[in-house]
Amino acid sequence: MTLLDIKNHLFSHFLSESTFSLQDDVATLKLPKQDVTEILTTHKAALVKLALEDMTKQGICAEAAPGLYILTQPLNSYSQSVTLNPMVIEMVTDLVNGFGEALEDPNSESEPYVANKLAISAEDIARLCHICHVLLDENGDGQDAPAS
After folding, report:
1. Three-state DSSP state, 30
2. pLDDT higher than 70, residue 51
3. What residue ranges do the domains of the chain occupy?
4. How far apart are CA 12 and CA 144, in angstroms?
5. What gap in Å lies between CA 20 and CA 24, rounded to an integer?
6. What DSSP character marks residue 80?
7. Which fold is adopted by the domain 3-74?
């Protein structure tokens, strides 16, 4: 378990809650069982506090009172930029467009969705994630895969 792992779990917590209390919420923070060691169990609050302080430095949350953190803005307004190389662009758009063609309704009058290789969007990434969840569910590997 790393600081990054803990921050990822905090980010997931903030998807449904706007605050995090070291006193009330640390116990409910779900960490993978295989990563829970004696050290992590003993020092969980301190490690979560360190992750929250790092998220505070990044401007994601702020400490409103000792041990109480609040989002600085709704997470749905949070975004990030990702740099993609040409091979990744090609793979993403080919998958999104190919999967879209395979599912296209021939009786539909609407234009099929086409990912733009010169401007990958959040919608393209969401569609790619949906494809992965569908494929995982078909193989029986998906465990409560979220809907896209």
Report:
1. coil
2. yes
3. 3-74, 86-138
4. 15
5. 8
6. -
7. Arc Repressor Mutant, subunit A (1.10.10)
